[in-house]
Amino acid sequence: MADHIAVFDTTLRDGEQSPGISLNMQEKLEIARQLESLGVDVIEAGFPISSKGDFEGVRLISQQIRKPVIAALARAVRQDIDRAWEAVQEAARPRIHTFIATSDIHMKYKLRMEPEAVLKRAAEMVSYARSLCPQVEFSPEDGSRTRPEFLYQVLEEVIRAGADVLNIPDTVGYSTPEEFGALIRGIQKNVRGIDNVVLSVHCHNDLGLAVANTLAALENGARQVECTINGLGERAGNAALEELVMALRTRKDFYHFQTNIVTEQIYRTSSLVSSLTGVHVQPNKAIVGTNAFAHESGIHQHGIMTNRETYEIMTPESIGLKKSQMVLGKHSGRHAFEERLQELGFHHLSADDVNDAFQKFKDLADKKKVVTDSDIEALVSEELVQIPEALQLKYYHVSSGNSLIATASVRISREGRTVEEAACGDGPIDALFHAVERAAGLDVNLKDYRIRAITSGKDALGEGTVKVEKDGRNYVGRGVSTDIIEASVKAYINAINKMLHDISQNPNNSDRQKEAIEAV
Ligand code: KIV
Ligand code: ZN
Q1: 465 pocket-lining for ligand 1 (C-beta < 6 Å)
Q2: What does the alpha-carbon distance between residue 452 and residue 505 come to, in Å, rounded to a whole number?
Q3: Which one of 28, 48, 163, 512 counts the least CB within 10 Å of its CB?
Q4: How far is the CA of 169 from the centre of ligand 1 (A)?
Q5: Beta strands 257-258; 94-101: pairing state
Q6: Atom of ligand 1 nearest to the CA of 142
């Protein structure tokens, strides 16, 4: 039988470390739920010592998500390990993932520690973590640039101290596939006790080699892969889960491995992560980009029509991309709508969520003749993560043209009080955002704004994404409508509501900012 490869997803930890991303607890939980449906073996839910938000997120996920192992990251420091354990102890299968850098450059300039002290600390902290938690993973940070003899020594010591999983990171994405494969082979050959632990890899994508390096490691004995949805992660990101898994599936004639991933959930997971993080997927991204299954040239289209396999090495259906069906219209009833939600995989919506989604569906069906699966998915994803709406849009009006100054007026209710304001701007959106800002009485730092069509046709749904910043934290808002101005203002208000909610939950600014993690 093909060897099993454990998939360790670190979207909520390394992915969340991507520049500009910060997810609130409900968003993290929603992603964790989807990762569970996707079938990942391990969810690295966060780095609990780094902030109160990270700690609470890991704790909530540990309480609610029962199938996968839930891992929490900790430096090889007692107080990190205590905090990680506090956050994951209620998980059905908790894991502490502790790390310390082992390359000469990191030990000398970052840790300012001698190799002997690092060796001792690694073993002591693995042993300490093991005294608390039934599963411990250890990572020698910057493993690929560590002197192999020292790396073997550290790995042997942590195995003796009780580590269950040894993870070799290519922290700065420096390795090449041949080199990284040889490193894993060397570890298999030279580290006593290696057969009693799981060997894992964690590759960064600075040279675009993360997936290739991970696959090379599998060919040489690694049996756990660390990866993220859409390849998110520090700098250029981590190995993309969808690319790894589809490479293993599509080329099983070559790799002979199997995973627990339900590949038909890949597309939904990628879309959810993209919409909650506000990081759009590039169109030509392998597997999940909008062009990944699009055939433009006539020769290709002809080939596909005659035999799909001429130009398609995997089917769109295998990642869960279905052709949008004309499912429902304005005469469809609630029963048909609920049935469609079930078929689309929305199983855990509350009765209130279904009511709200049904109302939105009815409104949309009044504007569009047919409502497709993609329309429904877009509407429902607005319901998935809800935060209290401190600001509510009651009305807006915009006027703009190429020979007049854009002006906008809005009526907003803020905690029961109705406020009206007007403003001018460089265009209709700018004017509208200024008017909202005035009505809300807030100074909003707009960092990013995007609009795109999420379904096709003249009456397509548009999705607005807005990122705002306060005290070093980013808040991503999303709005969906057939009218792009409405989608934009909904997204802006959604982002502000997330910001206000976060401030009300964490009034102390310093708690809301991720603490700078100093070297140990
Ligand atoms: O890239 C890295 O080295 C890490 C470790 C904490 C595993 O993310
Ligand atoms: Zn990393």
Answers
A1: no
A2: 32
A3: 512
A4: 6
A5: unpaired
A6: 3
C-beta 139 within 6 A of ligand 1: yes
What mean pLDDT is predicted for residues 19-46? 94
Tell me where in the chain the CATH 3.20.20.70 domain(s) lie: 3-277
Contact 21, 15 (CB under 8 A): yes
Q: Is 491 left (phi over 0), alpha (psi -120 to 50) or beta?
A: alpha
Among 402, 469, 410, 465, which residue's Cα sits nearest to residue 439? Answer: 410
Q: Which of 12, 50, 99 to mutate to test the pocket of ligand 1 (most atoms within 8 A of CB)?
A: 99
User: pLDDT > 90: what percent of the chain?
Assistant: 70
Ligand at minimal distance from the CA of 238 is: 2
Residue 456 burial (C-beta neighbours within 10 Å; 0-12, 13-18, 19+) = exposed
- Residue 388 has what pLDDT? 87
Ligand 1 atom index nearest CA of 172: 1
| Chain mean pLDDT for the chain | 91
Cα–ligand 1 centroid distance for 468 (angstroms)? 28
Closest atom of ligand 1 to CA, residue 13: 8
Q: What are the backbone dihedrals phi and psi of residue 347, each rounded to the nearest 5 degrees, phi first?
A: -90, -25
What pLDDT does 261 receive? Answer: 98
pLDDT over 50 at 457, yes or no: yes
Cα 451 from Cα 447, distance rounded (Å): 14
* Whether pLDDT at 378 is above 70: yes
Q: Is the CB of 13 under 6 A from ligand 1?
A: no
Whether 85 lines ligand 1, by a CB cut-off of 6 Å, is no
Tallying the residues shown for the chain, one arrives at 520
Task: Determine whether the shortest distance from the Cβ of 238 to ligand 1 is under 6 A.
Answer: no
Reduced to 3 states (helix: H, G, I; strand: E, B; else coil), residue 235 is coil
**CB of residue 99 inside a 6 A radius of ligand 1:** yes
Alpha carbon distance 140, 153 (integer Å): 11
Percent of the chain at pLDDT exceeding 70: 95
pLDDT band at 370 (very low <50, low <70, confident <90, very high): confident
List the one residue out of 187, 239, 189 whose CA is nearest residue 211.
239
State residue 415's pLDDT score: 81
Tell me how far apart the alpha carbons of residues 32 and 43 are, in angstroms, rounded to a whole number.
7
pLDDT band at 325 (very low <50, low <70, confident <90, very high): low
Q: Give yes or no for residue 187 having a pLDDT over 50.
A: yes
- Alpha carbon nearest to ligand 1 atom 1, residue: 171
Q: pLDDT tens for residues 275-284?
A: 899 999 999 9
Q: Grade residue 466 by pLDDT with cuts at 50, 70 and 90.
A: very high
Residue 172 C-alpha to ligand 2 middle, in angstroms?
8
CA of 171 to the centre of ligand 1 (A): 6
